[in-house]
Design goal:
The complex is a heterodimer.
Chain A: E1 5-7, E2 10-13, E3 19-24, E4 31-37, E5 44-50, E6 53-57, E7 65-68, E8 75-79, E9 88-95, E10 105-106, E11 110-114
Parallel strand pairs in A: 2-11
Antiparallel strand pairs in A: 1-3, 3-8, 4-5, 4-9, 5-6, 7-8, 9-10, 9-11
Chain B: E1 4-6, E2 10-14, E3 19-25, E4 32-38, E5 45-51, E6 56-58, E7 62-67, E8 72-77, E9 86-94, E10 100-103, E11 107-112
Parallel strand pairs in B: 2-11
Antiparallel strand pairs in B: 1-3, 3-8, 4-5, 4-9, 6-7, 7-8, 9-10, 9-11
The chains are: A mainly beta, B mainly beta.
């Protein structure tokens, strides 16, 4: 399977715990995006990388959130001191930079439940 | 503020009928729109896109119409099938902001056999 993969698919954690999610993009893609989706809503942009550089962060990304893409390949999204409001689906997408940037391919998402 | 939103949250159609899903946007500078399909437990899947210099684009069983005068676009699905049941989102791409997508709320399409 050469699509975008995410791990884990589901995560249940207690409030206050830290969680980390991983995204493996399509190997040739140099852009990687993180989105958050709550029930009944469309995905909301969180941040994106071009290669290993994090170029934009949404105001939704509080200080408790950090994302990395150390080698320009896979990326991790960490949430520290989770809150119940963090419960959502976290989606990763990848694409090429440039004219075909609209062709973002999404992974299956990681569903986070904070109890 | 800027938004991309949908008129109706749910749509129920009979198998074989045509479906029309609508979307309104507020950013008059938007120049590229995309429709995504999201099935339960999966990430959004690209369906079709349209640039602002077009008013219609056709794919396989799908057609997107864009009316820039009233800032409205629609997705038409011909001969709707049970496999079309999903949530459909319109999205705007911001090329000057790294290509990030701005999604609307979504319309859930339910196809009755």
């Amino acid at each position: 399977d050469t699509g975008v993969s995410q791990d884990p698919r589901h995560k249940i954690t207690k409030r206050g715990q830290n969680v980390t999610f991983r995204c493996d993009p399509i190997s040739e893609h140099n852009r990687l995006y993180w989105y958050r989706q709550t029930l009944g809503q469309g995905p909301e942009f969180l941040t994106y990388f071009q290669n290993e550089a994090q170029l934009e962060k949404s105001r939704l990304l509080s200080d408790r959130f950090s994302a990395e893409r150390p080698k320009g390949s896979f990326s991790t999204l960490e949430i520290q001191r989770t809150e119940q409001g963090d419960s959502a689906m976290y989606l990763c997408a990848s694409s090429f930079a440039g004219p075909t940037a609209y062709e973002q391919y999404f992974g299956p998402g990681t569903r986070l439940t904070v109890t | 503020g800027e938004s991309v939103g949908l008129h109706l949250p749910t749509l129920s159609v009979q198998e074989g009928d045509n479906s029309i899903i609508n979307c309104a946007y507020s950013n008059s500078a938007s120049d590229y729109f995309i429709w995504y399909k999201q099935e339960s437990g999966k990430g959004p899947q690209f369906i079709i896109d349209i640039r602002s210099n077009m008013d219609k684009r056709q794919g396989q069983r799908v057609t997107v119409l864009l009316n820039k005068t009233v800032k409205h676009l629609s997705l038409q699905i011909a001969a709707t099938q049970p496999g079309d049941s999903a949530v459909y989102f319109c999205a705007e791409i911001r090329y000057n902001q790294g290509g990030k997508l701005i999604f609307g709320q979504g319309t859930e399409l339910s196809v009755k056999p």
